[in-house]
């Protein structure tokens, strides 16, 4: 017998589908807010709420766009980036509601000059180069010979595009640096024990050194080497009286030796086979556990809703889909991580859940 669906259920289902269809509006509205400088304008108002007219004036938005700005701000309030309070102004027939806006902790992450700003990450992840390949996802599922939807659309893998397109490559490096700055600050406060006793650390795929700088400030006794592709570290010179050095190379071929190897948000970009290769190179570069050696991985450990360490399942699912579209990699659960470590010749690992949706994994042999 065919199931009879109540009208109320049909309408709720329709709203559910619509919300998923138009979820991109949240992302693009956030991008627009960052491009306009709305978070900085609201936060820089001396702690006072700001009106739409004041906001438009600060942002050089014409008066003909004030009602459109109100509609954008209404969505950003709904999304938790700002709060809104209404006050009455005028008397009698001239009385009107005036909307005043205040910042939230969420919008504080969007301040362009903040050391924990994620604005570069917002702008890069929502760049057309990253968003357009999603239109090729269905085509990619029907093929078996192209590693990613990104390659179907662009004709090259992500690392080739970032190398050939200088402006996009710079934007990508700034995005990774902004994330590294936030993570570095958290690691230096919540996970500093992970680095205690170490004399040297190689940050593999460390970009322009943002993470190394953040951790080095808290650990003046540690020598850091930032290791990345030659074109990424080209022109970078040693810092902190030589405590931070930059070396170019290919992590699949060789990794400089150290007490510890640091891999932040690197392995999720690669297949299991390639991860094992990288981890074997790391193993060659560090001493065994009894001599103080370790590999330190900062990455997601996929968790279920029932897990006591569950933080944000939806965020992890989003990231898993993101790396599937952009790279041959994946986000992994503990069982999948454990198999990688075993296949690469490691004997022991420890997971520290201290970085929100990401974890710190210490691996030893």
Task: Estimate the global geometry from the Cα principal axes.
Answer: globular
Proportion of strand residues: 15-25%
Please mark out the parts with pLDDT under 50 across 5 or more consecutive residues, or reply none. Answer: none
Taking the sheet with the most strands, its summary is: 8 strands, mixed
* CATH domain class name of the largest domain: Alpha Beta
Which topology of the largest domain does CATH recognise? Answer: Rossmann fold
Number of domains: 2
The chain-level mean pLDDT equals: 94
* Through-space gap between termini: 60 Å
Provide the structure class: alpha/beta
Order of helices and strands: HHHEHHEEHHHHHHHEHEHEEHEHEHEE
What is the C-alpha radius of gyration, as a whole number of Å? 24 Å
CATH architecture of the largest domain: 3-Layer(aba) Sandwich
Say which CATH homologous superfamily of the largest domain is assigned.
Answer: Vaccinia Virus protein VP39
Total of DSSP H or I helical runs spanning 4+ residues: 17
Count of beta strands? 11
Task: Indicate the percent of residues in helices.
Answer: 40-55%
Oligomer: single chain
GO biological process, one term: methylation
GO molecular function: O-methyltransferase activity; protein dimerization activity; S-adenosylmethionine-dependent methyltransferase activity
Organism: Ananas comosus
Keywords: Methyltransferase, S-adenosyl-L-methionine, Transferase
């Amino acid at each position: 017998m065919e199931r009879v669906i109540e009208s109320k259920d049909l309408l709720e289902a329709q709203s559910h589908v619509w919300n998923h269809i138009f979820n991109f509006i949240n992302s693009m509205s956030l991008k627009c807010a960052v491009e306009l400088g709305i978070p900085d304008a609201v936060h820089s108002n001396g702690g006072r709420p700001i009106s739409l007219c004041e906001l438009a004036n600060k942002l050089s938005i014409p008066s003909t766009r004030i009602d459109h700005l109100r509609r954008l701000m209404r969505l950003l309030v709904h999304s938790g980036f700002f709060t809104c309070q209404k006050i009455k102004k005028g008397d009698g027939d001239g009385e009107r509601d005036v909307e005043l806006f205040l910042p939230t902790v969420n919008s504080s992450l969007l301040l362009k000059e903040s050391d924990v700003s994620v604005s570069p990450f917002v702008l890069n992840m929502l760049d057309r180069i990253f968003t357009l390949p999603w239109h090729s996802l269905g085509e990619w599922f029907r093929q078996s010979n192209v590693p990613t939807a990104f390659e179907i659309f662009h004709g090259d893998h992500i690392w080739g595009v970032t190398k050939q397109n200088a402006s996009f490559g710079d934007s990508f490096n700034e995005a990774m640096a902004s994330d590294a700055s936030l993570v570095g600050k958290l690691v230096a406060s919540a996970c500093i024990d992970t680095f205690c006793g170490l004399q040297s650390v190689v940050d593999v795929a460390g970009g322009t050194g943002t993470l190394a700088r953040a951790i080095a400030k808290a650990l003046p006794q540690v020598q850091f080497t930032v290791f990345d592709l030659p074109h990424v570290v080209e022109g970078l010179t040693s810092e902190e009286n030589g405590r931070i050095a930059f070396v170019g190379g290919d992590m699949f071929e060789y990794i400089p030796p150290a007490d510890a190897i640091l891999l932040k948000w690197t392995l999720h970009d690669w297949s299991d086979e390639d991860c094992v290769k990288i981890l074997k190179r790391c193993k060659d570069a560090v001493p065994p556990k009894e001599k103080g050696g370790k590999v330190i991985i900062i990455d997601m450990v996929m968790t279920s809703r029932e897990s006591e360490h569950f933080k944000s399942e939806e965020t992890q699912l989003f990231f898993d889909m993101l790396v599937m579209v952009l790279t041959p990699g994946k986000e992994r659960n503990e069982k999948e991580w454990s198999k990688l470590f075993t296949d690469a010749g490691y004997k022991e690992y420890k997971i520290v859940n201290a970085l929100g949706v990401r974890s710190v994994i210490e691996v030893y042999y």
